[in-house]
Amino acid sequence: MDALWFLTTEKMTDYESALKIDVDVWKKYGRKEAKRLRSLFNVQDSSLETALEILIRAPFMLQVECHYEMLTDSEAILHIEYCRTLEAMKKADRTRFVCEPVSGAYFIAFAKEINPNIRVRPIRLPPAYMEGCEWSFSI
């Protein structure tokens, strides 16, 4: 649904407008999804590992194959080995990838809803790295 919405919005406006709207929507969705999952799983803990445990169980993450690696109690890497969205963008020969702005907005909003001190930054992303992506999560 999201891809169809983005492509339709892009066609009706332009890439920059569609991306701006998409990023705003994913920020809102990230916060709401984190709140819902935290409540559903009755999670009280706000550690980095707990945030990642909840994140990898989020409905949005069903489209990816991923795992996280705790480097320390305050630093982790989220590895996404397969992403259905990236595969669709590659198949469509897209030259611009929405990975950093859209996924970044979602991951940051989700993590901050669990713990406002969590920082998220991309490590490896398309187009430089076309096998998936990696994100740093830290406190």
Beta-strand proportion: 15-25%
Tally the helices: what do you get? 5
What fraction, in percent, of the residue positions are helical?
40-55%
Radius of gyration: 15 Å
Instruction: Give the C-level CATH assignment.
Output: Alpha Beta
Q: Unreliable stretches, pLDDT < 50, 5 or more residues?
A: none
Count all strands and give the number.
Answer: 4
Query: What spatial form do the alpha-carbon principal axes imply?
Result: globular
According to CATH, the fold-level topology is Muramoyl-pentapeptide Carboxypeptidase, domain 2
Rounded mean pLDDT score? 92
Largest beta sheet: strand ordering: 1-2-4-3
- Whole-number tally of structural domains: 1
Distance between the termini: 33 Å
Give the ordered list of helices and strands.
HHHEEHHEE
